[in-house]
Amino acid sequence: MKKIVALLLALTMVFALCACGQQSAPAAAPAATEAPKAEEKAEEKADEGFHIGIVTGSVSQSEDDRRGAEAVQAKYGEDMVKLAIYPDNFPEELETTVQTIVNMSDDPLMKAIIVNQAVPGTTEAFRQIKEKRPDIICIAGESHEDLPEIGSAADLVCNNDFVARGYLMIRTAHELGCDTFVHISFPRHMSYETMSRRVAVMKAACEEFGMTFVLETAPDPTTDVGVAGAQAYILEKAPEWIEKYGKNSAFFCTNDAHTEPLLKQLLAYGGCFVEADLPSPTMGYPGALGIDLTAEAGDYAKILAKVEQAIVEKGGEGRFGTWAYSYGYTVSAGLAQHAINVINGESELLNIDDIAKAYEEYSPGAAWNGSNYTNAETGVKAENTFLVYQDTYIMGNPGHYMGSTSVEVPEKYFTVK
Q1: Residues 406, 409: Cα–Cα separation, whole Å
Q2: Angle at 297 between CA 291 and CA 300, to 5 degrees
Q3: Coil, strand or helix: which one is 323?
């Protein structure tokens, strides 16, 4: 009997323990459901916003590049769009240039970094960024470094089409009645593959069109002579060059700082100017013409109209060209817009049509063309590197587009070196 009572007591205790366990389970359930909600809230907070960074040169060196970056910041706000400037003397301040770009990646919400122009040091900066933040999209606009090199570190590279433009500028000069093409540069620029290959294309195109090709050298503004010294040299030499090569000569320079004094002397002494290295109606023209574009700032239709009127008044009708919309402005703004579209899932990073769509948002009505970069050594096209260009506009009364974007560039020029 005692054994039966003990057994009943034991069973009672077991049932009691089970009951307690069943009662405590519901109390623990809310904690189990709260944890996923907290994670979801954290993810939602992370997705509430992201940052993009745009690195450009200063206003004194690359005004249009900077203004394009500021346009994107004005559109999306300073909280979302972060801006930085690399040193004017970037060849001598390589470490500062690299660090300026890399510092952008310290922002935990940074999702894309665009550098325009991608001066030497950008490749190294992108490599360092990718080591610690592989999630950040690295985009190079108008690279000064060899395209295969920067293409190995960047997710996307977009340069002006130095191959097609090398041919098209000569073709346009020929159509304007020019018999000589004068190319002005300096050793640092000529060490860049993009510029040396363009020279080779220009030489070949001059032979095709029966024109004379001439190389002239001017001081590098990033050296001790500075911008002022380089510009003074152009002011002094340009009249001599015009007298030497004739008024039917077209002139071209690879540096932005050289453009204004060259235009000023061409207006005064004769000669043609198809378009700038990085074309824009604000590239050199306002200073050369002595006009103020403050009231028209940001409105390229009005800017072009005012520049064109001044060109005609000074007797330059039919001799001076540009792109209707600034290349530097469009690259900074367009590549930033493309990055935003990609992050938002609206575009594909390496789709040329999506890139063009972003460019056109900041250059409405302008025709663009382009293609993948072809390595002249291997003949292989790079998937992440694109060369683009806008139609050339010749100012006059009325002005007119040359239809350059619809011209088929002979295939042989894409492997000229």
Answers
A1: 9
A2: 90
A3: coil
Among 381, 369, 371, which Cα is nearest to 405's? 369
Is residue 259 within 8 A of residue 276, CB to CB? The reply is yes
The distance in angstroms from the start CA to the end CA of the chain is 109
Contact by Cβ (8 Å): 284, 254: no
- Tell me the pLDDT of the chain (417 aa) as tens digits: 444 444 444 444 433 433 444 433 333 322 332 333 333 333 333 345 999 999 999 988 888 899 999 999 999 999 999 999 999 889 889 999 999 999 999 999 999 999 999 999 999 999 999 999 999 999 999 999 999 999 999 999 999 998 999 999 999 999 999 999 999 999 999 998 889 999 999 999 999 999 999 999 999 998 999 999 999 999 999 999 999 999 999 999 999 899 999 999 999 999 999 999 989 899 999 999 999 999 998 788 999 999 999 999 999 999 999 999 989 999 999 999 999 999 999 999 999 999 999 999 999 888 888 889 988 888 889 999 999 999 999 999 898 999 999 999 998 998 888
Residue type, 403: G
Provide the β-strand partners of residue 118: 143
Whole-number Å distance between alpha carbons of 16 and 41:
40
Query: Alpha-carbon dihedral of residues 246, 251, 257, 260, nearest 10 degrees?
Result: 60
The pairing of beta strand 51-56 with beta strand 81-85:
parallel
| Predicted TM-score (pTM) of this structure | 0.77
Residue 398: asked if its preceding bond is cis (omega within 30°), the reply is yes
**Cα distance between residue 300 and residue 362, in whole Å:** 10
Question: Residue 15, SS3?
Answer: helix
Distance CA 280, CA 39 (A): 49
CA contacts within 13 A on the Cβ side of 352: 15
Preceding peptide of 281 cis, ω within 30° = no
